[in-house]
Write a structure and sequence with these properties.
This protein is α/β, with parallel strands linked by helices. It is built from 16 helices and 22 strands. Helices cover about 40% and strands about 20% of the residues. The termini are far apart.
């Protein structure tokens, strides 16, 4: 349901959609879309809270409430876990250790960052010798529109809502129509811990011609933050241009891994298995292109094949399950299109390439983890984001060569470099055209550091004080002494 001004509401829209389980194709719920008037009500409620109790609340009191949200999620941990697993189909073992704990922690982390945030003061000389004093004032940016993806629904939503609320903004959240549940459930937590009505709002629905478009075009939405596909980001950017509203985007990627012959191959294999196949490959930071130095190429391919074939597709609740389904049958068809394209273009299929047979779950969106070699760099399979559990492995001879190959993409989100040569690591990493470069690791995140992409992978940075730059408006006060 929609959550507007502290109350759950059935939207006024005549449209609704089914929330389908990706595990078995069953209907989890029927969700009523928010109409344009519902979105307007949510934005007005957010604006009223911003100009009312939330906007006038002392900083320490506001941050205490933001921190209390953490405890509220933890008290309802099993409810959030059940909702997230039902919507996404991901293994309980993954969601219970990543999605829900990190989703809750985002509120605490950004509350702590805001507690330690300080404005700046500068003294300057003046021609008459008396000087002047300048100091900055950080103010909330206003009503923030948050457009969320479906791959890590709670975690990536709170990654935005956490700093937004800590900085004193109010939010209107539009979850993906594939994963509507946890954002709505969070409304109960907001009410239970005493967050004022209108501070946190949720509107359900699709994008173009629906809730997402209504939200991003609303003139009283002061800034928009979005994680998702690049083409959707382009549409949102066009909407945000009217009124010159600020945006923060984390968009698509076609992320490379570079594996040098001097790497610790066990570490490189373990890291690449995670980066290529974790969350069924539905991770924006995931690796879809792997470049391996020629002397260890065959060994690496064989070991990665063994690792991929050890992954177990199955029901989320099974302890042995390491790989859940894709998010939907529609996305399954998209990924299978690339699988078929690779075979047609003459790829050598090292493993996978189809749909696994799982007893009783034939109606789910299942897919096999897949590895290819032998495709040219110009292949669509090598150049376009697939967002599935797959990767292409290509050999390289020289360092300069692989840097060019890895950077030859319109995207620039992340990469991993595997080498035990520290000098090489420091030499290669600055040459990578990405927002984050891991050395001998993957998905190792210090939440105080900047996160975001370059080129078509995004605009702006999130994390630590870098998030505050987006969620606050800075004013300067100059006093002539």
């Amino acid at each position: 349901m929609n959550f507007i001004n502290g109350e759950y509401r059935i939207g006024r829209s005549q449209n609704s959609f089914q929330n389908i389980s990706p595990v078995n194709g069953a209907v989890i719920s029927v969700v009523n879309e928010a109409s344009e008037s519902d979105v307007d009500d949510a934005v007005k409620a957010a604006k009223a809270a911003l100009n009312g109790s939330w906007g006038t609340m002392p900083l320490t009191e506001r941050l205490d409430l933001v921190t209390a949200i953490v405890g509220g999620i933890q008290e309802r941990f099993n409810d959030f876990l059940e909702a997230e697993v039902a919507d996404t189909g991901k293994p309980v073992s993954l969601a219970s250790h990543l999605d829900i704990p990190r989703g809750a922690a985002n509120f605490e982390i950004f509350a702590d960052i805001m507690r330690n945030h300080h404005d700046e003061c500068f003294r300057m000389p003046t021609p008459d010798g008396t000087g002047a004093l300048n100091y900055t004032i950080s103010k909330p940016k206003g009503v923030i529109g948050i457009i969320c993806p479906w791959n890590l629904p709670l975690l990536l939503m709170t990654w935005k809502a956490g700093p937004a609320l800590a900085c004193g903004n109010t939010v209107v959240v539009k979850p993906s129509e594939e994963t509507p549940s946890t954002a709505a459930l969070l409304g109960e937590v907001m009410n239970n811990v005493g967050v004022p009505n209108g501070v946190y709002n949720v509107v359900q629905g699709a994008g173009p011609g629906s809730t997402g478009e209504f939200l991003t075009k609303h003139p009283d939405v002061d800034a928009i933050t979005f994680t998702g596909e690049t083409r959707t980001g382009e549409t949102i950017l066009q909407n945000a241009a009217v009124g010159v509203r600020d945006v923060s985007f984390e968009l698509g990627g076609k992320n490379p891994a570079i594996v040098f012959a001097d790497c610790n191959i066990d570490k490189a294999i373990e890291g690449t298995i995670r980066s290529a196949f974790a969350n069924c490959g539905q991770v924006c930071l995931g690796t879809e292109r792997v470049y391996v130095e020629r002397p260890i190429f065959d060994k690496f391919v064989n070991l990665l094949k063994e690792g991929a074939e050890s992954l177990v597709c199955g029901p989320p609740q099974d302890e042995d399950t390491s790989l859940g389904p894709l998010i939907s049958k529609e996305h399954q068809e998209k990924v299978l299109t690339y699988y078929k394209m690779a075979a047609k273009e003459g790829a050598k299929i090292i493993t996978g390439g189809g749909v696994p047979e799982i007893d009783g779950l034939s109606d789910g969106a299942w897919i096999e983890p897949t590895i290819w070699t032998g495709l040219p760099e110009k292949s669509a399979v090598v150049r376009e984001e697939i967002f599935g559990p797959c990767c292409h492995i290509a050999p390289f001879e020289h360092e300069d060569e692989v840097i060019v190959m890895a950077n030859d993409t319109p995207y620039g989100l992340a990469c991993s470099i595997w080498t035990e040569d520290l000098t090489r690591a420091h030499r290669v990493a600055p040459q990578m055209e990405v927002g984050i470069c891991w050395i001998n690791s993957w998905f190792l995140r210090d939440l105080r550091t900047p996160f975001g992409g370059s080129k078509q992978s995004g605009i702006g940075r999130e994390g630590g004080n870098y998030s505050l730059e987006f969620y606050t408006e800075i004013s300067n006060v100059c006093i002539k002494l």
